[in-house]
């Protein structure tokens, strides 16, 4: 039997087909161990499905505009009066109630329930799926500015049960996710035990690994610099000098940024709007979670008396225990990290002309790590 084509002129048919035919994965609350109703979904799933199945909605912008114009689709936010403000973080609950392309909890209103009256049975995280801030104005708000929400780790009990307040924590996280930047979450708790928090995090790590993500802990200060009196001297980073006189002065920083990407490093912060502690540094973390690199931005000009210099600081993630390592590197992490450090040093020193070769090829065409190094 031929399935009729979908058009924007018949939104009822489009939405019903989405709930009936899309590869639905039930959304679950790990804290309360319940499965959300079938009319709950993520905005990224709906928008992707619309682009594949509705001929007039071929772009992300058109599909997102269509979703926001459909009154039956509801984007959740916390009930009025609740505040998720933490430190200087902007609460997700204060944002405009619009649907964006990302990991945003939505629902489809049924006939006997108005969309504005629906409230989610659990606390949740809303994250936009965006590109980087490279094309944004420096005056624009950073897309990755932190947001926060409270998460119950165990439900509240009664006085007889001795758990009146329950156990909960506050999760501070990036408000957007991008494939070319590390996604950061900070967990703060007061009314919770370390065992409960640890079990929750281990559950998140297992789920992340199931969907081919890598979730790992990092220290609050990735680079224990000697000029910081609070730094641990045993974690002092390694300084790696970059050969000078090999590359054009105006291309040195851009080449090193590309070199770090070729080695598998991704930015830790939005460098378009600056880093929290060192605005003149370019800080990255390796995809495996075991290594950090901070590229210290050199002066823009150089003279004979003051030649152009550049260096990077290389640091290890000492919080990456065996439990949080990726499956492929569980037993060879130390050997892999030593290999990466040795190779990176050789390229920076221009051993066998590798730095110059990388510069010449990387600015002509995009090739993989093996082709460049």
From TrEMBL:
GO terms for biological process: cellular response to amino acid starvation; negative regulation of TORC1 signaling; positive regulation of autophagy. It comes from the Eukaryota. One of its GO terms (cellular component) is GATOR1 complex. GO terms for molecular function: GTPase activator activity. It holds the Pfam family DEPDC5_CTD. Residues 167-352 form the DEPDC5 C-terminal domain. InterPro entries: DEPDC5_CTD (IPR045838), IML1 (IPR027244), WH_DNA-bd_sf (IPR036390). PANTHER family: DEP DOMAIN CONTAINING PROTEIN 5, GATOR COMPLEX PROTEIN DEPDC5. This is DEPDC5 protein C-terminal domain-containing protein.
């Amino acid at each position: 039997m031929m399935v009729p084509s979908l058009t924007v002129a018949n939104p009822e048919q489009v939405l019903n087909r989405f709930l009936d035919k899309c590869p639905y994965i039930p959304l679950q609350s790990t804290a309360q161990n319940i499965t959300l109703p079938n009319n709950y979904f993520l905005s990224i799933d709906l928008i992707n499905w619309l682009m594949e199945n509705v001929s007039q909605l071929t772009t992300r912008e058109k599909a997102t505009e269509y979703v926001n114009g459909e009154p039956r689709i509801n984007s959740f936010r916390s009930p009025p009066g609740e505040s998720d403000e933490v430190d200087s973080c902007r609460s997700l609950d204060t944002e405009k109630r619009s649907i964006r392309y990302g990991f945003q909890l939505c629902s489809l209103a049924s006939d006997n329930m108005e969309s504005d009256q629906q409230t989610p049975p659990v606390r949740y995280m809303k994250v936009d799926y965006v590109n980087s801030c490279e094309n944004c104005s420096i005056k624009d708000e950073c897309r990755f500015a932190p947001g926060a929400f409270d998460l119950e780790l165990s439900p509240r009990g009664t006085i007889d049960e001795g758990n009146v307040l329950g156990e909960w924590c506050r999760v501070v996280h990036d408000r957007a996710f991008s494939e070319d930047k590390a996604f950061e979450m900070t967990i703060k708790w007061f009314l919770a035990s370390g065992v409960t928090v640890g079990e929750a995090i281990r559950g998140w790590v297992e789920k992340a690994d199931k969907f081919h993500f890598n979730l790992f802990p990092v220290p609050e200060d990735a680079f224990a610099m000697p000029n910081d009196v609070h730094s641990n001297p045993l974690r002092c980073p390694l300084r790696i000098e970059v050969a000078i006189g090999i590359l054009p002065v105006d291309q040195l920083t851009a080449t090193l940024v590309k070199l770090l990407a070729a080695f598998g490093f991704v930015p830790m912060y939005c460098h378009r709007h600056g880093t929290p502690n060192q605005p003149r540094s370019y800080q990255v973390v390796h995809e495996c979670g075991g290594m950090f690199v901070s590229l210290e931005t050199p002066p823009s000009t150089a003279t004979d008396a003051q030649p152009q210099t550049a260096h990077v600081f290389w640091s290890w993630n000492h919080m990456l225990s065996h439990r949080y390592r990726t499956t492929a590197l569980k037993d060879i992490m130390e050997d892999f990290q030593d290999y990466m450090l040795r190779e990176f040093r050789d390229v920076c020193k221009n051993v066998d002309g590798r730095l110059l070769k990388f510069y010449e090829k990387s600015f002509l065409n995009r090739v993989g790590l093996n082709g460049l190094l």
